[in-house]
Write a structure and sequence with these properties.
disordered N terminus, single chain, two-stranded antiparallel sheet, mainly alpha, about 180 residues, 7 helices
């Protein structure tokens, strides 16, 4: 929902995109985020174990070998918060605002912002990680199907359920991913 406010002698409207920090639908939003995150983490673990097992980056196999599942969950706690603030609260909001300012309130503006952040901004800001990968079709497919899709999912949760739901979903993915990676 976009609200246009005029006042205090301002000639330009202030656009409200409807994004929230707290869950839009309370307990339902958080429960949905947990369920989606747990399911997505399981999907990632299964995909890495059965489809992409030959191309898992050495940095990830070393992390699995050197740290317990609980240690890895703790390791990812701060990056989850940082990434959701950076990629959803700041970048996705800014891109959506620009698109809505140019095109008006359209659903495609939000989807375009979500996809741009997940498939362009995230890789651009993780270039040092991407440079460690051996380029191949399967590696690109893995990055899109695992990390790009995750960013799309967290972006959707932010858009429809609030930033906290995106954070909870992202962290919940690690709650299922990390233990499953240890056993698979």
């Amino acid at each position: 929902m976009v609200k246009v406010f005029r006042g205090l002698g301002m000639h330009q409207p202030i656009i409200s995109l409807g994004f929230t920090i707290l869950p839009r639908n309370g307990v339902y939003s958080i429960a949905l985020a947990v369920a989606v995150g747990l399911a997505y983490g399981a999907y990632m673990a299964l995909a890495d174990s059965f489809v992409f097992h030959n191309i898992i980056p050495p940095s990830q196999t070393a992390l699995i070998a050197n740290y317990s599942a609980l240690g890895r969950i703790a390791y990812f706690l701060l990056p989850v918060i940082y990434e959701e603030i950076t990629f959803r609260l700041i970048l996705l909001t800014a891109i959506a605002w620009i698109l809505v300012s140019l095109a008006g309130l359209r659903v495609w503006c939000f989807w375009a912002a979500i996809f741009l952040v997940a498939l362009a901004a995230y890789p651009a800001l993780h270039i040092t990680y991407l440079e460690t990968l051996q380029p191949s079709t399967l590696v690109v497919l893995r990055e899109i199907l695992l990390h790009g899709a995750a960013g799309t999912l967290w972006g959707y949760l932010y858009w429809r359920h609030g930033l906290l739901a995106a954070m909870v979903g992202h962290l919940s993915a690690h709650l299922s991913l990390e233990p499953l990676l240890s056993v698979l």
